[in-house]
Amino acid sequence: MDYIYGRNACISSLKGERKPSKVLMINNLKGSEIDSLCKKNKVKVEFVDAKLLDKITSNKNHQGVLGYVEEFKYAELDPLLSKIDSKKNPLLLILDGIEDPVNFGSIIRTASCFGVDGIIILKDRQVQVTPVVSKVSTGATEFVPIVRVTNLNVTIEKLKKDGYWIVATDGSGDRYYDEVDYNGKIAVIIGSEGRGASKLVLKNSDFVVRIPISGPITSLNASIANAIVLAQIEKYRREHK
What we know:
Blueprint: E1 2-5, H1 7-15, E2 22-25, H2 33-40, E3 44-47, H3 50-57, E4 65-69, H4 77-84, E5 91-96, H5 101-113, E6 118-122, H6 131-136, E7 146-149, H7 152-161, E8 165-169, E9 175-176, E10 186-191, H8 199-204, E11 207-210, H9 222-239
Parallel strand pairs: 2-3, 5-6, 5-10, 6-7, 8-10, 8-11, 9-11
Antiparallel strand pairs: 1-4, 2-4
């Protein structure tokens, strides 16, 4: 049994497939949207003191609510690819070693906003889906399929054979992020916070793109870089229908 916390994360869970078996909430949330959703879904509610939620979450910002849920279920790559194969412009996100749960949660939230069909992560050397990640994602973990793989380069080759163009983001890129045709099957690679994408991953990519930076700080947070590129893909596809 796992748990999620925060109002948006719990609301998303109640609206998604991984519904809580029980929700703990403070008295102030009686009659709230979360309370109503619990009643609608016949989820047991227990009104508790905020101190109990502080204890369970180690003083995280729980916003007065916590839900007990089943352990997060990761998606499988082949069924995901089959499901989205008929789409006009499938879009996947590949994360090469993101270690910060806040970055990971932010990336998932942005991916959900821009209609990403699935996120591929490593089983090792990568933060997994945790209560913190679910909270930061505002519950987007309940809606965006997340696949775990053991080897990104093997996965990249598989995607290429399936017709995907691989676009890696890196400061060494030979073109800007807005100089790529983003129609068709696209998989975007976001590298880790410190090292970026690995050399072999960059070598195996079809395009390596960079975001122009003119200020004294020469690198962007991984989640910010992700948002910039996904926004560009959305813009490009709207303008080139």
